[in-house]
Structure formats: structure tokens, C-alpha cells
From TrEMBL:
<feature type="domain" description="GST C-terminal">
    <location>
        <begin position="94"/>
        <end position="221"/>
    </location>
</feature>
<dbReference type="InterPro" id="IPR036282">
    <property type="entry name" value="Glutathione-S-Trfase_C_sf"/>
</dbReference>
<dbReference type="Pfam" id="PF13417">
    <property type="entry name" value="GST_N_3"/>
</dbReference>
<feature type="domain" description="GST N-terminal">
    <location>
        <begin position="1"/>
        <end position="86"/>
    </location>
</feature>
<dbReference type="InterPro" id="IPR010987">
    <property type="entry name" value="Glutathione-S-Trfase_C-like"/>
</dbReference>
<dbReference type="GO" id="GO:0016740">
    <property type="term" value="F:transferase activity"/>
</dbReference>
<dbReference type="Pfam" id="PF00043">
    <property type="entry name" value="GST_C"/>
</dbReference>
<protein>
    <submittedName>
        <fullName>Glutathione S-transferase</fullName>
    </submittedName>
</protein>
<dbReference type="InterPro" id="IPR004046">
    <property type="entry name" value="GST_C"/>
</dbReference>
<keyword id="KW-0808">Transferase</keyword>
<dbReference type="InterPro" id="IPR036249">
    <property type="entry name" value="Thioredoxin-like_sf"/>
</dbReference>
<dbReference type="InterPro" id="IPR004045">
    <property type="entry name" value="Glutathione_S-Trfase_N"/>
</dbReference>
<dbReference type="InterPro" id="IPR040079">
    <property type="entry name" value="Glutathione_S-Trfase"/>
</dbReference>
Length: 224
């Protein structure tokens, strides 16, 4: 049975999983679940409910007897299931380097992105204290990542899941008013470098086309 990834047209975490599968050159089927204009996924897809009955969210991966949810768990499975050198390795080779990359991926999801979520619903009042605080927290994270890039092209050394995670989180941050600025030139260059990867472009371009079809704004750096 072909590997299946259940995602959604505006699922940041689903995009992460799909980019990883594309980067590794895996033959998979992408299944987009129903989406409603209030940023919800209704009705819930039966496979999503089966695999992730509590959160009822995408992404979900089904590969023969393996059924997983959560983008990070999907990352880990893909790396174990499709190891190098036949497939592109997306964690660094050294133990310490892998640990650092995993920490960076976690920070993107659990430290940086919650600030982006706080901006949801605040687009009408970006000068409010909560919005200003969320944008400032995003800017601090950008500064920390910019510093990492002083001696490397990617966040953890070689291109990795850490780069996929922050890139996609940043796409949503930019959409919500917390984009990068000239204050972090190395990070802006990193964003452009990651964004030119064919796997990233395929997934993000599809997402931006969906946004445009809904009459929603597309970040300036992704307008082609």
C-alpha cells in the first residue's frame, strides 16, 4: 500500500510533513481533507479521526500497519523508514548535532509558533498590547536564529527538519504580521535559500495558490 499523508490546504504542520516526504523522494499520496472558510477542517476525515481521535487534526501518515499523527513524529518515522544514503538524510549525522537540530525543530513548533497563534484574530488591532508582545517575541526568535547563521548556511549545519519547521512557521508569521526585516539579513538570505528548494516550492506554492483563490493575502516574499 502506498504511503498516504493526510493534510489540509492551510495546515502548517501538514506542509512540514509533505516537504519532508518530498525532500526524501518518497512515493506518497497526498490527501487533502475538507476545509471550511473559517479555518476549520470540517467534516472530519474518517482516517484522521481513526488515527488521531483526541485532537482530530492533520497531518496524519498511514504506511501499511503504521499510522501516525504529529509532524515531528512523522519526521522521525520517515527518517527511520527511509535512511541514507539511498534517501536524503534530514537529521545531522553526529549525536550532538542531531540533538541540537531536534531542539531547534521543537523551538519552532513550541516556542516560536505559539506567538504566531496569538496573532490569529488580532489582524484588526495590531497595535494592541498582545499583538505587539507577540511580534516582539517573534523578532527575538529571528535574532537568535540569525546569530546561528553567522557560520553556517542552515540552522543546524546541514539542511534539516529544523529548517523545514522554522520556514513553515515563518510563512504563517509573515501572513499574520510578524515577518522578517532587514534586522536579520542572514535569516532573510536563509529564507530565500530554503524557499528555492523544489520540495519547499511545490508545497508552499500550492498553499499560496489556495490563499489567492480564497481572496486572502499572500506574503510579499512568496508572490511570484
Amino acid at each position: 500500500m502506498q504511503t498516504r499523508i493526510y493534510s489540509g490546504p492551510l495546515s502548517m504542520f501538514g506542509a512540514k510533513a509533505e516537504i519532508a516526504a518530498r525532500e526524501k523522494g518518497i512515493d506518497f499520496e497526498r490527501i487533502m481533507v475538507p476545509f471550511t472558510t473559517d479555518d476549520a477542517y470540517e467534516p472530519k476525515h474518517p482516517e484522521v479521526l481513526r488515527v488521531n481521535p483526541i485532537k482530530q487534526q492533520v497531518p496524519v501518515l498511514v504506511d501499511d500497519e503504521v499510522a501516525l499523527f504529529d509532524s515531528t513524529q512523522i519526521f522521525e518515522y520517515l527518517e527511520d523508514r527511509y535512511p541514507g544514503p539511498a534517501y536524503l538524510a534530514l537529521w545531522p549525522q553526529g549525536v550532538a548535532e542531531r540533538a541540537r537540530a531536534r531542539q531547534l525543530e521543537l523551538q519552532s513548533d513550541e516556542v516560536f509558533f505559539p506567538n504566531v497563534v496569538r496573532l490569529f484574530g488580532l489582524q484588526h488591532d495590531m497595535q494592541s498590547a498582545p499583538a505587539v508582545a507577540a511580534c516582539a517575541a517573534c523578532a527575538r526568535h529571528y535574532g537568535e536564529m540569525d546569530a546561528l547563521l553567522a557560520t553556517r548556511d542552515y540552522l543546524a549545519g546541514p539542511y534539516s527538519y529544523a529548517d523545514i519547521a522554522l520556514y513553515m512557521a515563518h510563512v504563517f508569521a509573515d501572513r499574520k504580521g510578524a515577518g522578517m526585516t532587514a534586522a536579520t539579513p542572514r535569516l532573510v538570505a536563509w529564507r530565500d535559500r530554503v524557499g528555492e528548494r523544489p520540495a519547499v516550492r511545490a508545497v508552499v506554492d500550492s498553499m499560496m495558490c489556495f490563499l489567492a483563490s480564497q481572496g486572502r493575502g499572500v506574503p510579499a516574499f512568496l508572490q511570484r
